[in-house]
Amino acid sequence: MAFGDGADDAALQSAWAQFCAQLQRAGEQVFKDANDTSGAQRADAFRFLTQNLGQAFDLSLETRDTRYPVLHTFCGPTRKLGGDCADFTYQQAWIDGQSTYRITGNRGTARFFNVTVQGARVPGPGVLHEPFGDTPQANLIGHQLSIADDGSFEIYIGGTERGPNWLPTTAESRKLFIRQGFDRWGELPAQLRIERIDMDSPKPLPSPETMIEAMGWAGDFVTGLMSDWPEFPFTYGGVDAEHPNSFPAILKAGATEADRKRGRAAANMYWELAPDEALIVEFGAHDGLWMFTNMGAFFNSMDYLYRPVSYTPSRTKIDGDGRIRLVMAHRDPNVHNWLDTQGFRRGNLTYRHMLEGEPAVLDTRVVPYDELARELPPDTAMVSAAERSAAMWDRFHGIRRRYVL
């Protein structure tokens, strides 16, 4: 048997060739002006692409049939999708508005838990590539859940209303989006399973038409993520690429309706840092769950499995004046609240505040690295090499616990 002997050969080969051409174009985006020319950052951009190439067909084919839903973890230590937060886990499941689904599991101890139903996409300016670009239709936050004494629960999605643990759907509903936010390293993730409640036959094998559609979706996905990042936040997210090293103002009252539905407010700072410089981020200690994540040029989170590139309330030290100071630097200044850059010369730092209490006013300044001791309070918490190594192990174990690695 050879090419052309099958009725679908030409269509399948054409779709595959088109996907490969899109992948080639996606790779060319590595060299855009927004990315630094260093070998490390060029390689990181290709890594961003290859990590998502690895899940392109999970999203477009393997989990795509809404009659046979699957919870897919689309970000993690070895897979970064633009704007991912180091202290969140992200899962999604494709659904439809006609079926009824059930999620069962154990709540775990993550400080923030959120399940949303997402509706139809309206492509156009200001809309990110799949699987982003949605505002929740319906939202269920952890404190709203009815949970048994042993931590078990079930959530119904769609169909007839079933008490507090129920999310409605509409004809335009297309996926579930599940986020868990963590503070302490010892927190445990929720263990979740999903099913369509009236499943009565095995999942069918992909047809040629299904495979061709999946190739088209996957091609749009890889080109979209390389085209949208980092330009999308610069154009639509208030990130100022012309004035680095400063956060835009963020106030709870200014959070968008979409932010409220997502249960958070966010601000991002584009940064550039020379080898002999350090950047101090300063803010008042404040209530609520907040997070900082240091990211590369494509808004992909840095190596949070091993490196101190993310902070939450429990993992920072507060100075005697009631303020928190994070120190971003290319080499370890022996400051407890060190934000590692991985040696990158430019990137993005995102602050998220889960809407409980008030977001902080974030002040920044760039100082000479060798003058940090004069720029920081005398009581700044410092660490030894042994303490830094111990903190690395705490991080390593904590992240593996979240992802069951």
Word description of this protein:
- With 405 residues, the protein is α+β, with helices and mostly antiparallel strands.
- It has helices at 9-28, 39-62, 208-228, 231-236, 257-262, 372-375, 385-403, and strands at residues 72-73, 88-94, 101-106, 112-118, 136-141, 152-157, 166-167, 175-181, 191-196, 264-272, 277-284, 290-295, 310-311, 323-329, 338-340, 346-354, 363-368.
- Helix 1 packs parallel to helix 3 and helix 2 (39-62) runs antiparallel to helix 3.
- Helices cover 25% and strands 24% of the residues.
- The chain is built from 7 helices and 17 strands.
- The chain has a 5-stranded antiparallel β-sheet.
- InterPro entries: DUF1214 (IPR010621).
- This is DUF1214 domain-containing protein.
Distance between the termini: 43 Å
The biggest sheet amounts to: 5 strands, antiparallel
Mean pLDDT comes to: 93
Radius of gyration: 22 Å
**Net shape:** globular
Query: What is the number of domains?
Result: 2
Structural class: alpha+beta
How many strands? 17
Strand residues, percent: 15-25%
Main sheet: which strands, in order across?
1-2-8-4-5
Low-confidence stretches: none
List SSEs in N-to-C order: HHEEEEEEEEEHHHEEEEEEEEHH
Number of continuous helical runs: 7
Helix content: 10-25%
Protein name: DUF1214 domain-containing protein
InterPro entries: DUF1214
Pfam families: DUF1214 (PF06742)
Domain DUF1214: 92-177
